[in-house]
Amino acid sequence: MFVEIQISNYARQDVVIENSCPNCRKPIIPDVVSKGSSEKSVGKSNIFITLQCPGCEHFWVEEFSATLDGTNHYNLTHVEVKPELPSDIPMPEDIDIISPIGKDIYLQALKAENEKLDHIAGIGYRKALEFFVKDFVILTNMDDKAKIERMQLKQVIDTYIDDEELKTVALASTYIGNDEGHYFRKNPDKDIYDLKNYLHGFIFYLGKKLTFLDAQELVNRSKKS
C-alpha cells in the first residue's frame, strides 16, 4: 500500500508499506495511526509511520531516511527498527556485554512463551543457556575458545565451572532443557517453568560471578601498583 507523507514544506511523497503484519504474518491492509517527518539537516529528514494490524491489533512503526536528490523528490531508505524486548527478570549489564546473542535468544524464547508457544520456548531457553555458559567460560578461558565452542554443554560445565552453586543450576537447567528438545523426558516431573526457574538462578549467580571477577581484577591491579 502507499502512504502519502509531507516530507517538507514543498514536498509530499508516497511511501510504500508492505501489506503484511510483522506480528501475525498475515496479509493485511494496515491502519495508519499516525505519520510525520522531522528534518535532520538541509535536504535530509526522518519519516515515521505508526501502523496497526486490523486482525491481531499489533502496533508497529515503519521508519525511513529521506534524502533530497536535487529536485523536490526524495530518495527513501527503509530503517530497520528492532524494539528491545522486555525481560521478565533483571539482566545484569555484564551478561548483555559478554553474551548478547544469549540474551537475544532468551528474549525471543520469552516472547514465544508469552504467545503460548511453550514447546518452542523450551528449546529456545535451552539454546540461550548454552550461549550464556559457553560465552562465560570462553571469557575466562580464551586459549580454549575453539575447543569450548565444539564441546557438549554438560562437558563444558563439568570441565570449566568450579563454582558449585553456578555448576548446580547450570546442570539442572541443562537436564530439563535437554528434555525440551527430545521426545522422551527423563525428568517428567519438571517442565518449562522449572527450566526458567533454574535458568534464572544461573543468570543470578553468573551476574554475581562476573561482579566478583571484575572486583578481583581491580584488587590484583592495586596490589601491583
Termini separation comes to 66 Å
Q: What gross morphology would you assign?
A: flat
**Number of structural units classed as domains:** 2
Binned strand content: 15-25%
Gyration radius from CA atoms, angstroms: 24 Å
Let me know the number of strands. 6
Strand order of the largest sheet: 3-4-5-6
Protein name: DUF4145 domain-containing protein
Which short descriptors sum up this protein?
two-stranded antiparallel ribbon, 7 helices, 2 domains, alpha+beta, flat, four-stranded antiparallel β-sheet
Could you give the topology of this structure?
Layout: E1 2-6, E2 12-16, E3 31-41, E4 44-52, E5 59-68, E6 74-79, H1 93-98, H2 100-114, H3 118-140, H4 145-150, H5 153-160, H6 164-180, H7 192-224
Antiparallel strand pairs: 1-2, 3-4, 4-5, 5-6
Protein name: DUF4145 domain-containing protein
Structure write-up:
- This is DUF4145 domain-containing protein.
- It comes from Streptococcus constellatus.
- With 225 residues, the protein is α+β, with helices and mostly antiparallel strands.
- The protein folds into two domains: 2-79, no CATH class; 93-224.
- It has seven helices and six strands; from the N terminus they run ββββββααααααα.
- A four-stranded antiparallel sheet has the order 3-4-5-6, with no helix packed on it. Strands 1-2 form a two-stranded antiparallel sheet.
- β5 and β6 (74-79) form a beta hairpin.
- The protein is flat, with a radius of gyration of 24 Å.
